[in-house]
Amino acid sequence: MSAVLHPTSGSGKRPSSPILPSPAAANAAAASFAALTARLDYLGAEDVDLVRKAYRFADEAHLGQMRASGEPYITHPIAVAAQCAEWKLDAQALMAALLHDAIEDCGVSKSELIERFGVAVADLVDGLTKLDKLQFNTREENQAESFRKMLLAMARDVRVILVKLADRTHNMRTLEDVPREKWHRIASETLDIYAPIAHRLGLNTTYRELQELSFRYLRPWRYATLSKAVGKARSRRRDLIQKVQRDVESAFETAGMRVRIAGREKTLFSIYKKMDEKHLSFAQVTDIYGFRIIVPTVTDCYTAMGLLHQLYKPVPGKFKDHIAIPKINGYQSLHTTLVGPSGVNVEFQLRTEAMHLVAESGVAAHWLYKASVPQDEGTERLGTKWLQSLLDIQNETRDAAEFWDHVKIDLFPDAVYVFTPKSQIMALPRGATVVDFAYAIHSDVGDHTVAARINGAQVPLRTELKNGDVVEVVTAPVSTPNPAWLGFVRTGRARSKIRHHLKTLAHAESQELGEKLLTQALRAEGVEKLPPDDETYHAIWDKLLRFTGNRSRAELLTDLGLGKRIAGIVAKRLMTMLAERGERPDAVLLSRERFTAHENVSQGGLTLDGSENASVQFASCCRPVPGDPILGYLGRGEGLVVHTTDCAVAKRLQHKDAERFIGVEWSDEPLRAFETGVLVTVANGKGALARVAAALANAEADITHVDMDDERAQDATDLRFVVSVRDRAHLESVLRNLKRTPSVMSARRIRPGG
Known about the structure:
It comes from Ramlibacter pallidus. In eubacteria ppGpp (guanosine 3'-diphosphate 5'-diphosphate) is a mediator of the stringent response that coordinates a variety of cellular activities in response to changes in nutritional abundance. This protein has about 750 residues and is α+β, with helices and mostly antiparallel strands. It contains 29 helices and 22 strands. The longest helix has about 35 residues, at about 220-255.
């Protein structure tokens, strides 16, 4: 990002100067472009001309601007374009790379770019410009919003993030020219955000380089120390590595196999990370060196591995087959660690040329060989499934911090691989559960999940999946997502789908409650029912919505249900409007409603049967059950909260906020059980808790929570239970049952403040 390269401004270059660069500097820039054109041999002549046209425009736009190093600024866009050319990106992406600072730094408008280079290039540059403005060291919500913008830009066109990664890579390579006080912020941002994105998209070469450069500027002393240690080890083990290479080459020659062998050295950052995580000394890190063996076909990979295992003994448990089961980002290779000469472990990676291309370039491999393999689905899919899921999550998540929460786990895919009953392989993040698996198949499967079997055995839905598990999900049409699932799901997709469903459900229920409340309040004004939203009453609803500030009737009713508006006030206003039309209140209804209205509440009553779900909450301070005298409080934005009339919390609220209370009463036949608190004092002794639990079970009361005193009591202990009961009569029966139980000294309901 150019924003990191200048000591005093955010532009990454020295301010424009009237002094033009010297002819030598201009020649250097031109020579740089000549070096770039040498890399464009994969493009047609027309495309090369388009890239040259973009270069000339950028060169002119940046004239007089210098980088912190003193070089002409144009050298930066050229370096970014050169990296994109390494990935064989198309002409549009290369043009965007050359022009990526033109809008922000040179006063060039998007419309001018459209006119000169077309909509596609202008959109790419615009996307990159927005990314350049991102600052990740701001407050958390701003960081989340910035991150969301960046991920969505790359989800719409992956070339945006490829150019962005090329830009960041070049800035990291030249970070030494930047004031030292900026190193930590820029390197941390690269390590935390850009390197994981490069890894998620399979750009392993870029991923390793960004990690290495970040480590160098974040921990300069440790980097230098490790660099010296690796240099010494390299010279000590040179003979050993050369011997291994000769032995391997000889073995393949004897077998008549055509292979390409390349040495591979662990990066300093990965050595440091291993030492730090596993508390090892440098001498204990044995797999610093390894080899990549590139063969013509997939079959040759397995044949070559057989030859290696005959040459040296394999280390048990150190073989991984990422060809049969590729990593989430598309990486494929066989990995095996062998015990080489002098007992030194040497890792080998075996792959084909196509796999090597994907391993090093990931999602960019789509451009690298789409010309030679136009119908190849594997490259088309690389990274795109994850990118598409970002758009899905965005559609259901408007809150930036929530969006960041959904995707951050998916950025670090330490994967487990499981099978569907039809033997299809699925990759999920480590720690993923059955519910994550269900949502990975389809959101409808996740929403209706009721049970699951792993390897044929019934398991709880929160069970974590292990490599090789065969997972079968059981669904039911009536089932809906459980809010408790949010406590254990691991994937952003599952979490966003569950939250979206619960929000939609709560919205619908709040609207229904709001309609009941407004109808009830209108009855208190002498009108039997709400006027319909038809042509006759359309003007009245329009005027009412202007009064309340809502956009629609549904939104108004939802606000009433959530307690954001008072039904009584809205009903009075609606009644005034109806009176202006000549409609009069029903005198009989008016007197009846006022005669039966609750004395201590300001709005009409509502009947509760337990089916209200998210729109009605039963207060945890007093835990009302059917049979208790109750009243309802319309909390701001939290729907209707039901308290007992003697609840101290309710009394305080009533004193302060009386107009928010409404009359509520129990239905004659509640549809479910309700929770309440019970305090049981028992004499200490063996089996006391078991006897109390048995007494509750015999009284048909389910225990949902139990708590006991922390102090070691001498003679007696208080046990606090939350139990589910049908009504007040059932609760009294439960308490009688407890009092008859041996060891129980007393049993009573926990009242407010008790």
